[in-house]
Design goal:
By secondary structure, the chain is mainly beta. Helices cover 12% and strands 33% of the residues. The longest helix is centred in the middle third of the chain and has 11 residues, at 27-37.
Length: 89
């Protein structure tokens, strides 16, 4: 199983980790590990973004199949949900 040496960081750049992961590791596992290890809020949704091209990785896809290579930086970003506008007639 090929290993990828990547960097995972938070969007605000306050947390960063160098990891060696199997290329079969899925994005959702990377996000969950970041939430658990960095005590990120659990009531927030997160996405995993490949910083080289700004592409959001599909959580169920393997890193290798998503084009992640050695040395790449992946960013765990909170998913912002826009609120509805109330009171407009």
């Amino acid at each position: 199983m090929p290993e990828l040496k990547i960097i995972v960081r938070t969007a605000d750049l306050t947390r960063k980790a160098e990891l060696a992961l199997r290329s079969e590791t899925v994005g959702a596992d990377v996000i969950q590990a970041a939430v658990d290890n960095w005590s990120l809020p659990t009531d927030t949704g997160y996405s995993l973004v490949h910083t080289n091209d700004g592409r959001t990785l599909t959580p169920a896809s393997a890193l290798g199949a998503s084009g992640v290579k050695d040395g790449d930086i992946l960013e765990v970003q909170p998913v912002l949900v826009a609120g509805a506008l109330h009171g407009s007639d």
